Predict the structure.
Amino acid sequence: MAKCEICSKDVHFGIKVSHSHRRSNKMWKANVKKVKINANGVVRTANVCTRCLRSNLVARA
């Protein structure tokens, strides 16, 4: 679901700690957008994280 098709960034798991130091499980999702990209001359839609979009790792169509 929240996985980048360029750099394979996906969800991370950890522990959320509250102010009173109660601990509970937490899941952080990657900021993934569905965009049209130009891959080898073919226009297709892909799930790409915003870091790959910002650093120009993909060519938007």
Remarks:
- The CA atoms of residues 2 and 10 lie 6 Å apart.
